[in-house]
Amino acid sequence: MEKGLNKSNFSTRQMVTTAMLAAISIFLGLSGLGFIKIPPVNATIMHIPVIIGSIIEGPIVGGLIGLCFGLFSMYQAFTAPTPTSFVFWNPIVALLPRILIGVISYYAFVGIKKTVKINAKASGMAVIAFLSIMIALALKIFFPIYVSCIIAAAVFVVLTFLFIKYKLSEKSEVLSIGTASLLGTLTNTVLVLTLIYVFYVDRFAKAINVNPTLAGKAIVTIGMTNGIPEALISTIIVVPVVMAILKIRK
């Protein structure tokens, strides 16, 4: 009896978490708070509830929140269209990447956490190197390449120092949550832009006033200018939020 009751409570918790985080994602879109202006791009944080839900409750919950996010994207594309909204009229483009945010985030979280336990030092240094490279690529958008590389190198040195001094490698949750957040965000960006290229490359090029022969490069540029800042912002927000939730549950 007790086992069945616990299972029921867990299912109820999952449903409540799904509804709550889906509502937050939609609220961010409706209110405009889900968009952060980082000239010359607008970064979105509407995918963050999807990542949080997948990490704390699993891939099914994450996928359902992602589905709600995708359905809202379709609704917004029909009710408040922009020159490029037509791409989200297609359910494959609007829904599939958003559902996979939750799936990829969860399995990245679990996989990195297991890897960190096996070889904490190597895993920690690999994540620090990955973050430094991501920072260099993001800064390259706004600064000359040598400036972005210098800043990224400084970040690498500082993080490595902290890693060694305070033994951050023991905090497997920090590394796994951060990596899951990065990969979840990039899953959305890469898949959406890839599907746009597959289904609508010529029409999309015309909508953004780009020569169709240069559409591929334009899409890659959009991915760089939007995806990388979004991934970094997502990580900054998701890590402390999920850490707090996990700490409360313990």
TrEMBL record:
It comes from the Bacteria. The chain crosses the membrane at residues 15-36, 48-75, 87-110, 122-139, 145-164, 176-200. InterPro entries: ECF_trnsprt_substrate-spec. This is ECF transporter S component. It comes from Clostridium manihotivorum. GO terms for molecular function: transmembrane transporter activity. The lineage of its organism: Bacteria, Bacillati, Bacillota, Clostridia, Eubacteriales. Keywords: Membrane, Transmembrane, Transmembrane helix. It holds the Pfam family ECF_trnsprt.
